[in-house]
Specification:
The protein is of the alpha/beta class. 38% of the residues lie in helices and 26% in strands. The chain contains ten helices and ten strands. A hairpin with a 2-residue loop joins β9 and β10 (211-217). The N and C termini lie far apart (36 Å).
Length: 235
């Protein structure tokens, strides 16, 4: 289990995270929703070591990982799919995927993982020699997810995977999230599409200005009038 306790982050004079606490139980999908600037992406970046925290604790299966090197955190099984995809545009699909497995030494198993990624994303297999920079936004998002899966994560953190994508691609991405989770990967999801995120999540947390203001099951939050008005655009 991934456990976050009293996590605090400052950016200069801005208190981006104000001592938040939540758990990500093994095998579940947990989502963080909230407005821009609420601290959702900062939370993921702090967990994986891309942002230095001022205080608190992030423990992974009982071991403290806060402020460790990102490489070590990834090798322990906690992996981030960053906002904006961040694929390597001048490398082809195959090369981008193999970069996700840079820390693995098991060549045969890595090749098997690659084949599994291509089964999840047949469109990537069709384009395996195509440069990533020439792919559509949806295809680049598939590639970013596939690259993360190449490291054989135990916890997959995803930052805004549906951002800027057509509705049909968004639906496919959320189907893939369900499938990945069903295969035993724990998922921590940051997503502005609150309705889609809560529909797939076991548990949801609502963030506002660096704090957690609401929490509950995905279904309970979907039914909560306060959440519906503030984040789902319903009245």
């Amino acid at each position: 289990m991934l456990s976050i306790k009293n996590l605090s982050v400052h950016y200069g004079g801005i208190h981006a995270l104000r001592g938040i606490s939540f758990d990500v139980p093994e095998g579940e999908i947990v989502t963080l929703i909230g407005a821009n600037g609420a601290g959702k992406s900062t939370t993921l970046n702090a967990i994986v070591g891309l942002v230095k925290a001022d205080g608190g604790s992030v423990s992974w299966n009982g071991r403290e990982i806060l402020n460790q090197k990102t490489k070590d955190i990834v090798e322990s099984g906690v992996v981030l799919v960053p906002e904006g995809r961040r694929v390597f545009p001048n490398l082809n699909v195959d090369e981008n995927l193999y970069l996700g497995a840079y820390a693995r030494k098991d060549k045969a198993e890595t090749a098997a993982t690659l084949e599994h990624v291509y089964q999840l994303f047949p469109r990537l297999k069709e384009r395996y020699k195509q440069k990533a920079g020439t792919l559509s936004g949806g295809e680049q998002q598939m590639l970013a997810v596939g690259r993360a899966l190449m490291s054989k994560p135990k916890v997959l953190m995803m930052d805004e995977p549906s951002l800027g994508l057509a509705p049909i691609i968004v639906s496919m991405i959320f189907d893939i999230i369900r499938k990945i989770n069903a295969e035993g990967v724990t998922v921590l999801l940051v997503e502005q599409n609150a309705k889609a995120a809560l529909q797939v999540a076991n548990t949801g947390y609502v963030m506002e200005t660096g704090t957690i203001s609401f929490s509950g099951s995905g279904q309970d939050l979907l039914a909560d009038d306060r959440i519906r008005k503030a984040y789902l655009g319903e009245h």
